[in-house]
Design goal:
The complex is a heterotetramer of chains A (327), B (312), C (334) and D (497). Chain A has helices spanning 2-26, 33-42, 44-58, 66-82, 88-112, 117-135, 147-154, 162-180, 182-192, 194-199, 204-230, 241-251, 263-280, 290-326, and strands spanning 156-157, 160-161. Chain A has 327 residues and is mainly alpha-helical. In chain A, helix 1 (2-26) runs parallel beside helix 13 (263-280) and helix 3 (44-58) packs antiparallel against helix 11 (204-230). The chains are: A mainly alpha (327), B mainly alpha (312), C alpha/beta (334), D alpha/beta (497).
Amino acid sequence: MIKKLKSHEAILVTLLIAEFLFFNATGRRFATIDNLFNIVRHSVEIGLLALVMTPIILTGGIDLSIGSTLGLCAILFGKLWRDAGLPPWAAAIGAILVGGACGLLNGALITQLRLPPLIVTLGTFSLFRGLAEAITRGVDAFTNFPESFLFLGSGQILGVPTQAWILLAVAILIWLIVHRTVLGRSFRAIGFSSEGARYAGLPVERRILFCYVLAGLVAGIASLTYTARLGTAKADAGYGYELLAITAVVLGGTSIFGGIGSVHGAMLGVAALAVLNNGLTRVPAVMNIASELSGVLTGALLLSALALGTLPKHLAAWRARRHISLH
Amino acid sequence: MKRHFRELSVLAALLLMLLVLALFTPNFYEPQPLLSRLTAAAPKLILACGAALIIISRQIDISIGSLFAVCGTCAGLLAAAKIPFAFAIAAAIGIGAIGGAINGALVAGLGLPSIVVTLATMVTLREALRLAQQGVFINLPEGAQWFGLAMKPGQSFICAVALAVLVVLAFATKHLAAGRFIYAVGSDAEAARLAGIRPRAITFAVFVLMGALAGLAAVLNMAQSPQVDPNSGRGLELEAIAAAVVGGVAVSGGRGKLWGVLIGLLLLVCIGPALTYAGVKPYWEKAIQGAIILLAVVADGLRSSARKGLFD
Amino acid sequence: MKRIASFISILVVALTFGCGKSPAPASVAGSNKKITVAFMPKSKGNGYFVSCKQGADQAAKDLGVELIYDGPTTPDPAKQNEIIENWITLGVDVIAVACENRDGISTALKKAQDKGIKVITYDADARPDARMFFVNQATPEGIGNTLMDEAGRLCNEEGEFAIITASLTAANMIAWQEKIELRRREKHPKMTMVALRPCDDLKDKAQAEATTLMSAYPNLKLIMAICSPAVPGAAEAVKQAGKFEKVKVIGLGLPSENKAYVMGGITQDVILWKTVDLGYLTIEAAAAVARGELQKGAKKFTSRKLGEITIEGDNLLLGKPFIFDKSNIDQYNF
Amino acid sequence: MAETLLQLESVTKHFGAVRALKGVSFELKAGEIHALLGENGAGKSTLIKVIAGAHSPNSGSIRISGQIVERLTPALAHRLGIACIYQQPALFPDLTVAENIGLRLENLGLFQRVKWNERRARAADLLNRIGADISPESEVRSLSMPEQQLVEIACAIGAGARIVIMDEPTASLTQKEQHLLFAVARDLRQSGVGVIYISHRLEEIFALADRVTVLRDGESVSSHPVGEIDEAHLIRLMVGREISQIYPESQSAPGDVVLSVRNLNCAAGGIKNISLDLRAGEVVGLAGLVGAGRTELARVLFGITPADSGEIHIAGNLVEIRSPQEAIAHGIAYVPEDRRRHGVILELPVAANITMASHRKLFANSWLNLDRERVAAQKFVTDLSIKTDGIDAPAGSLSGGNQQKVSLARWLETDPKILILDEPTQGVDVGAKAEIHKIIRHLAARGIAVLMISSDLPEALGMSDRIVVMRNGTIAAALPGKSAAPAVMSAALGARA
């Protein structure tokens, strides 16, 4: 099992390097430090969401509502700051807690009522987005944030974009949780066999609930970097980000059925998509159709990664069949 | 009575809503706008029936909206190129079936998870269409709208076709072996294999059917106006799945009735207009729809966990 | 151990290729170096911007500038910022953008200006300090007033009307709604707006919304569709409801998409501007700004194709919104 | 001479490293009940799946009514008149009984009509033919396990099969339902059907079968008419070693009471006022037929299904056990019966499986300490001599016996005061069985109180200091260690001793 994951990561690293070489050769001013920072700055939100989507998928679950949660948190951050008059850091903590509450709702419905995660988060996908639109009556937008907050989205620390440090910090935290703590070990056990995990004395419901609350909290953080980067908070923030996060995580070798997967794999998936999106806008031949082409290539990449993943299984089955008929 | 409890509870909700509308906003029932509203919902009913069969076979398909747009645009281009309209309709259904076959081959053939396969096909189809058509409307030739009939007969014809599809599929899933095989595969694929049913073939066939239905829905939608909007179909996949879930189709597979899906769809489709008639601000619509889906899902959870407790 | 090795290999690759800061665009005033103009629509899936691009392509060919055209496939403010920031590192000379989100885009445009890239906006404006000029096909006041005055005229100054917009969050729609409301209060008090419904830029949804509106408000006299797909959608609904004597349809839309309805007398008039000219003028202004021929504070700008363009403050006025109606609509093919 | 319906010639089948069938020859005549006897793990289930076409053999031949059948599939087996009643019913939980039977019996083309009233009539007829009062309209999901078993039997009969395979059908049937089943089997024999009856219970074989073939470790050992063989000889063939298999002697006298249970009730588990004491260093055998409620009791003690009422005292003080975590905290460990689903997680490495129950103990600050895990795992791999290629190998790559040792190691790592073992040597090769017995005796010597659930009578008798017999969810009798087998069996069966 672990062997299969390693080969997947190796493929992804070579893909990433191939992308680099190709875009550096054909793209205009691709491999400059500024552009590299652009790639990082533009993939922070998707990166954060992919990070917390990994433990959820490891337990065999899924979260379609994480993009809407980001939107709701962005709105409440704006409301707390502008209308409730809270200082930015207090409003930020409020937004993160709102995210945690959204995650708690998802987790509670999934664990206490044993409901399928896909359908629960499909319901909260419209509910959270609906609440964001209702609170702002659709039209209201929050802007003119103080410089101290905008620093989060456009400033630099030690020459590196601020939000890159946030992504790095959250990435390290989630990597340690998944790969170096008992929590991570229990996510895999639950993903492979939730009954087996329960008989081994693991608190299955509590661990699954933890994953969804963590996802909500980090979606709150992502709403802050999104709002800071954009300079404004509106009800359509983060629309469709959950599908991009799922694409990156699956591309990174994590199995949608649970158990197999890695946080660094997901990060490689995010990087591969980010470099693809950025690179295409710099290749003169395809510059004018960059956005559509990146959508088509992302879909194709995802399908080939999946099909490649099942190759060993099918080869083995084919060999076994051939073995029998030889007798 | 007990076995239809779930569908009847949704019917009760729908009747309650219609009653409230009748009392407070009677012109909801003005014949002409009501017929137009039902005609606009007809394509969604066909998509919801397809989505229901997919969910009953314990799979999911979120590429329905993109396939719907591709089929509609292709049919529009063919019709605009003076190809006989009947041929354009057949082409749309054929292209839909091919799209469904691609999903089916990947899910049933390679055993890939349907949520991720259809996520990939959704994105690929939508962006490829945008690449080709760039969002430019397609003007249909003269006789295309309402299939050449006058408007009122055209509208009733479209509603009739949608209801016919519902009746045929409901009959097939109740009385034909193929229909029952879908329930069997959704309920327990291994038991189906041991009973001599071929689960992978059934799953493949359901995806192909879903594609063809998407093509047919696109044609019925196209016939309602003289122009084809290539961006159409955005979000239809979630509406179709929501209608099936609210209509009592169990995501765990093997359970659900198509007439329940009809009621689920009517409930969700009525919310928008109901808010307009009641003069409620439009920004409440999405939150209310999300709440209804969650309520239906929680109701399912309470009911099956009560029963599952016995069995677990 | 193997995993850490793969991490390091990526970092190494990134650093070896990172050859220093991206050079500032070497646009010296008046030099005839080929200028690159980066031109962005609000979203690519929209017929309206396709016609703008026709004009832009024409202008690029006439002026011999290199045109880069990209934008998000659906209206997404974050994506617009990302593409602008990519253009900054690409080193374009001038950016011309239709802004989905006025404040959001200004953060990115200011960054471009700090890097010496000239910025102008068209169709929808950003904050004044984030760009040099705004090619104003028509100011929101201009659009709002024309729409409201037309509505008043058609309903002889009293009655109910409803608005169908794209999405509740679209910035320019919100601006137009405010101006329409102001104009109504000021000039057409007896007109009342009974409802505002979104259609997510989808023609079919607009059609369904219009049908419901006509039935929910029996004495509705006019539907104002302020996003391009909604105009034909509303017109089709009115035609199907057989109410084209009672309910008038006006809106902001492309002549080509509404020709049938205007000729059929269902849509009274479509207010728009010559989008092809808008595209053409935008590229002309962009090139002029890049070459230094157009400085801040200029009062006039001569366009090759459109002649004298007056500049009010920092707005290049394409002119008042143009009303396409039965009499003139078939002369235009965009 | 009755016609030979089925003939197997040296059939083998292996799954990766595990060789389930090493060469089985078997013959079935028409109008005969041919019993297939063997301990759990002897290969019975695999053999059935080969006959029913669910698995394709790696070598050897299958002859049905005379002709060799190359690629047997479930559909083909169905058409050739082979009907199989699996231990795990292969039914559709969401569909009605009538439809379940319909889908199994009919061979409808895709576009053929389903005749519902015909299905309902046939289902009703079959169900009352075997005396099961189940409504054809009820959903299978709402049926109890015994009821589902009867539906499976109804399917077999309905199929008019000429070869009917029954895989431990009486496992979860009540007394009344068992007699019903015997009547049905004899009924089938009368009508010329060949019945393969699988069980590991001797009394059923003598009551029902005409011929018996013994299966041991994937090989068909011998085949005799029932009249020519007695119980002791059968057990010797089945177990392959002398009945007086020497079990390690218990070296220590039992200490004071560690666990005392007073009238424990749990409706969900079917447990009725259980009172039981367990002393340190004592091995208590929990005997009884399958379905007597022994596993359900273990689940209540371990907190999987919370008790309704009753008291549990550990080392004298009253405790409340609502979850496995609490049970572990109180020093209770449970090695579950279903090894592959609950015992180990097949995809995770051996080391991860071994430390899985003692995260709190080994990794107090919740940081995984891979070295400490490796040391702990390696210690058990050597102590219990687990055959695995490294502690990073996935548990799924191990043989049944070694998987059981890993499961055992997991719970020993929590160093429990009370160890509940559920069929510890089920499906384990003879060598590993002896080693596990040694380990159990060693643990008792170290003062751990062991409650061992075992359907293997010789093992229960040989290993236990005391035997508690359960029947229908309550304790039927408590017998001293070295009692005679018939006494235990009669208590289990509830027969007049």
